[in-house]
Amino acid sequence: MFGFKIVENLQKMDKDIVRKDLKYHNKRVLVSKEFTFDAAHHLHSYEGKCKNLHGHTYKVIFGISGHVDEIGLVIDFSDIKQIWKEQIEIYLDHRYLNETLPKMNTTAENMVVWIFERMEHALQAFPNKCRVEFVKLFETPTSYAEVKREWMIDV
């Protein structure tokens, strides 16, 4: 059994490990990142509480897959965050969704497809055949809509 040990000799590149060994495999791997945002909306042609203006703290979970690069990464988590911040969140966080999203009923089911499409488009600029495998959009802690890659392709 391994006990706690203080590292005395930090592994050094080209001394203890060589660059060609940084990539361990050629498999497709899924990485996941989640974000939250607060927004207001209301639903059209709906006879329930949600026809009134109200808000949610939404949670979005992305599953992004790709092949690892020469150092063993599919995509840096900070790159996913940058796409989120610059190309998606700006339309969502602290916004009136009926005004900032395309003309649609702002249901979780419609919004999750829009979010998938935005992220998928942004990933085209990245190597490693990165692609969105799924997006989950939680409207409440116990209620969410989800879209998967195969559902977007096999319409």
UniProtKB/TrEMBL annotation:
Catalyses which reaction(s): 7,8-dihydroneopterin 3'-triphosphate + H2O = 6-carboxy-5,6,7,8-tetrahydropterin + triphosphate + acetaldehyde + 2 H(+)
Required cofactor names: Zn(2+)
Database matches in SUPFAM superfamilies: Tetrahydrobiopterin biosynthesis enzymes-like (SSF55620)
Highest taxon of the lineage: Bacteria
Coiled-coil ranges per UniProt: none
Any one Gene Ontology molecular-function term assigned to this protein's record: metal ion binding
Enzyme Commission number(s) of this protein: 4.1.2.50
The protein's annotated pathway: Purine metabolism; 7-cyano-7-deazaguanine biosynthesis
Transmembrane parts of this sequence: none
Enzyme class: lyase
Keywords: Lyase, Metal-binding, Zinc
Recorded family membership: Belongs to the PTPS family. QueD subfamily.
Stated name of the protein: 6-carboxy-5,6,7,8-tetrahydropterin synthase
